[in-house]
Prior knowledge:
Elements: E1 13-14, E2 17-23, H1 29-43, E3 47-51, H2 62-74, E4 76-79, H3 94-101, E5 106-112, E6 125-131, E7 135-145, E8 148-154, H4 157-173, E9 178-183, H5 191-203, E10 210-215, H6 216-225, E11 232-235, H7 237-250, E12 258-262, E13 267-271, H8 289-302, H9 305-321, H10 335-348
Parallel strand pairs: 2-3, 2-4, 4-13, 6-11, 9-10, 9-11
Antiparallel strand pairs: 1-2, 5-6, 5-12, 7-8, 12-13
Helix pairs in contact: 1-10, 4-5, 6-7, 8-9, 9-10
The structure holds adenosine-5'-diphosphate and magnesium ion.
Adenosine-5'-diphosphate binds at residues 27-28, 81, 254-255, 275-280, 286-287, 290, 328.
Amino acid sequence: PVQKAIPKIPKAQYGGxxxxxxxxxxxxxxxxxNYVREIFRYAGVPVDFEVLDIDPNSESNDDWxxxxxxxxxxxxxIKGNIETKSEQIGIISRNVALRxxxxxxxNVLHCKSYPGVRCHHKDVDLVVVRQNTEGEYAMLxxxxxxxxxxxxxxITVEASERLARFAFNYARTNGRKKVTTIHKANIMKLSDxxxxxxxxxxxxxxxxxxxxxxIIDNTCMQLVARPAQxxxxxxxxxxxxxxxxxxxxxxxxxxxxxxxNYGDHYAVFEPGTRNTGTSIAGKNICNPFAMLNASVxxxxxxxHTQHAQAIEAAIYDTIVVDKIHTADLGGTASTTDCIQNxxxxxxxxxxxCSTF
Length: 356
Ligand code: ADP
Ligand code: MG
């Protein structure tokens, strides 16, 4: 039997409306979330947000605890990049802690080119399936003696296996043909070796999906030279972050693509390359589409597919047909120009509060 790639996750719903946790985070997060809310309000999307700001300078953990409790209650969240105050060793990044606490073991980044966007490669259509809770992000580091630092990279068969199974199921249910395991098992023979061997074992359960593997170094070179050779990339946490950024960089940068985080119980949606954008905050210049695409992913996850399609089409028309591009794409549009144009398309298609 064909297993669904995306786990069935409970959602908070009352009278047809969903409640979703919204964590704006730092930098450009709050302005982007305001646009998400504006568009949802305009389109009559039946979603209520529980907005929680986490003060990175607060001495107490209350904001943080409330955020986690809220996601556990609602099952679904949309987030920006959350800042962690302390640079102190032993303090775990809150973004990492959130993924760990909610068991969000997989990050899915689907990168599909928008025609007409300034880019290094056209017609890219790749999916990165990234391990999201272990590997180099264990944040277990110490200085064993002065001048000697050890950093632990954790790879388990259990996490590697369910990630691999997710990737192959995703490939199968989304019409993909090939999964490539990205690793450095020639050097990290035990850790990456475990990840690679596990993916080879799981691949046997999916004879309809081609499987191969590639060393991370060569992967970066091949991505830059000939990205069309890849289909689904299955990879550990750090290599996933690197390859995601390389791919986004090839086809338009940090402002366009969204990423999805799944576990057995919760789903969290965010911009794909997880940037804070501190230097561009509050200037009406940031590209809003990565966050808007995250909101579309969220609507699809909740089953509000008509609203998702309407907003997705308005985003596509704004970028591809009207070519309303912010500075990061070489354009001159402001963030609000983009949003106004999305609203205009929704109005033209008569998508407003009463449509659906
Ligand atoms: P990090 O949060 O990882 O430190 P940055 O916030 O510095 O990353 O983002 C990396 C780069 O991407 C910066 O040049 C930033 O301006 C740019 N960037 C990130 N998000 C956006 C966006 N939404 N629109 C335009 N540029 C963006
Ligand atoms: Mg940063």
